Amino acid sequence: MNPSVVFDQYLVAIPAVIEAGAEAKFCATLRQPSGTLVMTVTLMSREKNTTLFTHTSNEAFQTCVQFKAPLVQKEVQHFQVEVRGDTFYSKQVTKVMIQAYDPFTFIQTDKPIYLPGQKVNFRVVTMDNKMRPANQLDPHRNRIGQWLNESSNSRILQLSYSLDTEAREGPYQIIVSMGERKISHNFKVEKYVLPKFDVTVNTSEEVSIGQEDIEAEVCAKYTYGQPVPGRVTVNVCRPINKYFFPVIFFLYCSFQADKTGCATFSFNMSIFTKVDQKVLQDVLDIRAKVEEEGTGKLCFSFKMTHQCRIRISYVLGKVSFINMPKVWERGSNVEGKVSLTCCFQLICDAPVYLFTGQMRQTHSLQNLTTDSNGVASFSFSTDNFDQDIQLHVTAFYDRGFHILSMSQPSSPDIKTISSLEVQTNNKAVACDAEEDISVNYTIVGESPGSVDVIYLVSYLWVYYKVEHDQTFVCLLKNYLTEGQVSFKVRVSPEMAPEFQVVAYAVLPSEDVIAHSADFSTDKCFSNKVSVEFSPSSAVPGEETNMQVTALPHSLCGVSAIDKSVLIKEPGKTLDADKVTIFDLFPLKKSSGIPYEVDDATECLNVRPKRYVLPYPRQEQNDAYAIFQVKYMYTCESVKHNVNAIDFVVAPVFNMFVCICYFRDDGKRGVSLTVPDTITTWETEAFCLSSQGFGLAPRKEMKVFQPFFLELTMPYSIIRGEHFELKATVFNYLTSCIMVTVTPGPSSDYTLTPLSGDLYTSCLCANERKTLRWTMIPTALGAVNVTVSAEAVASHVSCDNEVVSVPDRGRIDVVTKSLIVKAEGTEMTKTYNWLLCPKGSPLTEEAEIHLPENVIEGSARTSVSVLGDILGRALKNLDGLLQMPYGCGEQNMALLAPNIYILHYLKGTQQLTTAIMEKATNFLTSGYQRQLNYKSADGAYTTFGTGPGNTWLTAFVVRSFAKAQSFVYIDPRKIEESKSWLQHKQQENGCFEKSGKLFNNRMKGGVSDEVTLSAYVTAAFLEMNTSQHDPVMNKSLACLKQSLSDLSNTYTTALLAYVFTLAGDVETRAHLLQHLDTVAVREGGFLYWSQTAAETSASLSVEISSYVLLAKLSASPTAEDLGYASGIIRWLTGQQNYYGGFSSTQDTVVALQALALYSTLVFSPEGWSTVTVQAPSSQLTFDVNQSNKLLYQEEALQDVSGKYSLEVKGTACASVQISATYNIPTPADVTTLSVKVQLEVNTTSESEKTTNMVILDIKMLSGFSPDPESLKSLKHGLLVSRVEQKEDHVLVYLEELPKDTPINHSLDIIQELPVDNLKPAVVKIYDYYQPGPKADTKRRSCWLNRRRSFIWMLAHEKNMKL
């Protein structure tokens, strides 16, 4: 506006920031033209000028013009307004920013919390058509999964990631990267048990310090909505300020819940006000605990991050001015009223004090007394005032303020005291409805005439979109004119969650007055989405129909989650009512215009509000501030430009797994089978369409059996034991029923009734009844126990009431599995052959003798055949060893064999999709688990703590490097580990030992340094590091220094492999020649042992495998392959039932060697027939190219005796005969005290400690370890790790010192009584040397595999081990 011209006035408003390519608006006002004027509006950039508006008029006008912003990335352009007439000319130029914004994106997971081992399903929702990389980070910022260049034509990208069973607990993060932008979503991994019921505390959010009694209610309800019978315990605490000594002020009380599952209690506030209030926080914390009747299960109403907290208020009432004038004139009396509203239903009897002046220089004006309505009137003379009057009123601890502006004639030199005020509404405005908006005006000292009041409505979804613009005329008749104008605003979904109304007027004095107000709306969307179930509730297993309604051609994501999960981890949902969905949107409300477009000069003649302390930073209502803050603001675009053609319901949760489509009617029904779980499912549905986003109100589907059955039984028992099977029937009907409870027939067990004639009996409303049988299993293995309960018709009345039969869910059938194990200890014998007939039949014989004390019925013998020596390992990728995998090295025994087998199958073109999926799942899981043992410096440790382990780090990094071609491995982790290893290289080229040497028996004629350096060097060479690399040059030089001493066969074999990889032909030949001289040749078998006296099978497998790798890693000749065949025959004979070997290390190296050999000798042709002759039966197996990887296994009728086999054809066949049986435990041991005398030899007299030792404690039937005792055991002497696997507790002992007893204890608790209790077996063994032989001449502290047993038998409910 040009202030030098009196009569020609104009005002133009435009957003400070405009979205590139979007529709934008500016508003222009011209008033009191002195003649014909031409207004031209131009948008100017460096490239071109665009005329947006030209209008010629000799009359006043007000209009808003829409235009399309230029499509640029980010650019400041100039907005020019030119007004020209015969006697008038004005030009104003201001800056505007044109900016492109990234699309809106959010991430949704199917749950907020997961158990280790569960699958994380997640969706990425965006308006772009291309997604770039999505990453996952674990609690230690390790990248554990990555998807690159993922795209979704449907705008919803759906992916999943399986967590490892050993995944670390804590927060995880999914990160979506789109160019430079990153969006993240958090979820938790935790070992949790879902709660059966929820506990809520209902009370006021705020209480007064003056209240006497405070009431609260605690309620507990099952997830299916029924009340929980039980006892409520409540703690009320007022916390201490952290600066004071932590004295506890609390109240404890206990109540019985009523039939509704609730208990009401009250307490006196004075309990918490007896101490100096400065010491205490102004809050009350309420903790409620409910113990379920009958089961004793607990559920707490709060966690550390979510407790029931009540604020304590010191405000006993609110005081304010009412019916007050805004302007005062000299010589007049000011009249007004004060209103006092008392809080918390307290009695209002406090005095009211009236003051004038600045906040810190107030003067008492009057003392007032309120009437029965809490109102006091006052009047005072203005004779002693000559400026604005600031009034203060105080009562209780509250204060009210009001400013009276002094009336003065309007003048260009005096700022106006006229004002506008947009009236606000405390309630949210309904969507798709009209809202009445009122603007109060006070115009002072203006000349008679008229004033146009102009209002604009804008909202935050788009850049200053003017939805409404209108002019109202106010007639000025007197010196002081007050009044109100009203108008209606139709609230559309695009205006949610908040819109603004800006009102302004240009006064005759050329002053501009303005005011704005924010209005909140209901949380609504342009796409109306709803989900309905028919029927709305169901019984388990019942069919239901889900109806989804949205705009035609929408794309929708529908999810359902068990309400128990939300009780455990509330929040983390898309919820319009909680505003969480709006929080996800990139919405930003500006507090001013960007500095790039800020104009220094003010073109408006405005009066800033005169503030009074203590609120100088409240909302600014002067015109210039309004147009800077409210009128010109920025936000990020969230327009949904979706080109989806079909509506897709694509759920990711366990309850619903379906995809369906519809075209034009906006509705789709999906038939679903309700899960067999009694709970409440809560849905979450959102939709995208070309018209925008939509979120359905959350809908519940209650799955409930009107009466249902629960079985109570142990996880497992030993044959010969028996227990009390309990079946509890619950009736949640409103009437009595006649229930018949019947166990299913089975030949696997016998049941003896213990409940008399109650198996058909009355069960009235909200009652439960427990029925019992004595159960004696007769079969081994997994036994399914089935019991059914049925509501039957009956003429017998119950409690003088006629029994009813429910229309739905009148039968409930429950089946649970019971593991029945044979008595004693399981033993296994295996015989392996690799037979390659090459046209001539080959035969072999084996004879199996079972011990005399074998337990009847426990023996089973089978024969298995494969056409590939790696087929058995391929079948058992998750269990090559029946040993625990609880440390970093053992985990690698799961991961590494997958890599070698995959490389073999890929190299021989046998890799199928199914095998690839299975193996990569194990690789991904192993990679994720291995990161648990990684240190920040890149090293890996055995149990995730302590100094980095040189050998283990090399093992990991070589494996990760090989795995990269199959699964995502973060390359940064490999580089970090390589760098750590390089820093461990010493001056002499060898690598420094860090961490415990993995196997004591590898020590021998050379130092540990040479063996370790050879292993690290091999790892680098396997990663294709050049032998000319400085690190390799130094390490190879170090290794050559040790070649004068070849007494350690293990180290010699490893060196032969290293120099083969390095291409040192001469050194390799020298080492292999020496190894050939010390080889053991027995028939057609060829293998090596550490020394003539040391015949450890585990070490022999490793040594022989390294020789095999050395022979085959350098372009082997036919002679080399022939030499290798003797090693292969011996190695395959050492395999266990699962395809592995004795320990982790020999399994990994042997399978690497076998994979290399199999790749070299692979032939896509050939067949063979295997015939197995048992004493009384014969089996035949066919092996060909189409089934060579197929695991063929048959049980033999004869569990012992002489077996012969014959192989005919042209292809090799891997054959295994396996016998498994149990032997009894001693019957005379009756104590839980454990004393073990260990008798095993060592390789030298100087050996002072063992390798790692595993203590495997089997629980007695019906018992479980005490959680607190288990926790204490984890901190025991030399205990590295303790884990619980089903009914076993595994204790990892770092080592055991020679001749030094180590004592540990473990408490076990009886959960269910079991009669005729059998002994449970405790095993202890050396992890690395579980071989069958032991030399009793020397004593040490480590054991033979499966040879040393400790038995225990319990007679009390709580016992110590």
From TrEMBL:
<dbReference type="Pfam" id="PF00207">
    <property type="entry name" value="A2M"/>
</dbReference>
<keyword id="KW-0722">Serine protease inhibitor</keyword>
<dbReference type="InterPro" id="IPR041555">
    <property type="entry name" value="MG3"/>
</dbReference>
<dbReference type="Pfam" id="PF07703">
    <property type="entry name" value="A2M_BRD"/>
</dbReference>
<keyword id="KW-0325">Glycoprotein</keyword>
<keyword id="KW-1015">Disulfide bond</keyword>
<dbReference type="Pfam" id="PF07677">
    <property type="entry name" value="A2M_recep"/>
</dbReference>
<dbReference type="InterPro" id="IPR014756">
    <property type="entry name" value="Ig_E-set"/>
</dbReference>
<dbReference type="InterPro" id="IPR002890">
    <property type="entry name" value="MG2"/>
</dbReference>
<dbReference type="Pfam" id="PF01835">
    <property type="entry name" value="MG2"/>
</dbReference>
<feature type="domain" description="Alpha-2-macroglobulin">
    <location>
        <begin position="650"/>
        <end position="743"/>
    </location>
</feature>
<dbReference type="Pfam" id="PF17791">
    <property type="entry name" value="MG3"/>
</dbReference>
<dbReference type="GO" id="GO:0004867">
    <property type="term" value="F:serine-type endopeptidase inhibitor activity"/>
</dbReference>
<feature type="domain" description="Alpha-macroglobulin receptor-binding">
    <location>
        <begin position="1250"/>
        <end position="1338"/>
    </location>
</feature>
<dbReference type="InterPro" id="IPR050473">
    <property type="entry name" value="A2M/Complement_sys"/>
</dbReference>
<dbReference type="GO" id="GO:0005615">
    <property type="term" value="C:extracellular space"/>
</dbReference>
<keyword id="KW-0732">Signal</keyword>
<keyword id="KW-0646">Protease inhibitor</keyword>
<protein>
    <recommendedName>
        <fullName>Alpha-2-macroglobulin-like</fullName>
    </recommendedName>
</protein>
<dbReference type="Pfam" id="PF07678">
    <property type="entry name" value="TED_complement"/>
</dbReference>
<dbReference type="InterPro" id="IPR011626">
    <property type="entry name" value="Alpha-macroglobulin_TED"/>
</dbReference>
<dbReference type="InterPro" id="IPR019742">
    <property type="entry name" value="MacrogloblnA2_CS"/>
</dbReference>
<dbReference type="InterPro" id="IPR008930">
    <property type="entry name" value="Terpenoid_cyclase/PrenylTrfase"/>
</dbReference>
<dbReference type="InterPro" id="IPR001599">
    <property type="entry name" value="Macroglobln_a2"/>
</dbReference>
<dbReference type="InterPro" id="IPR011625">
    <property type="entry name" value="A2M_N_BRD"/>
</dbReference>
<dbReference type="GO" id="GO:0007399">
    <property type="term" value="P:nervous system development"/>
</dbReference>
<dbReference type="InterPro" id="IPR036595">
    <property type="entry name" value="A-macroglobulin_rcpt-bd_sf"/>
</dbReference>
<dbReference type="InterPro" id="IPR013783">
    <property type="entry name" value="Ig-like_fold"/>
</dbReference>
<dbReference type="InterPro" id="IPR047565">
    <property type="entry name" value="Alpha-macroglob_thiol-ester_cl"/>
</dbReference>
<comment type="similarity">
    <text>Belongs to the protease inhibitor I39 (alpha-2-macroglobulin) family.</text>
</comment>
<dbReference type="InterPro" id="IPR041813">
    <property type="entry name" value="A2M_TED"/>
</dbReference>
<feature type="domain" description="Alpha-2-macroglobulin bait region">
    <location>
        <begin position="420"/>
        <end position="568"/>
    </location>
</feature>
<dbReference type="InterPro" id="IPR009048">
    <property type="entry name" value="A-macroglobulin_rcpt-bd"/>
</dbReference>
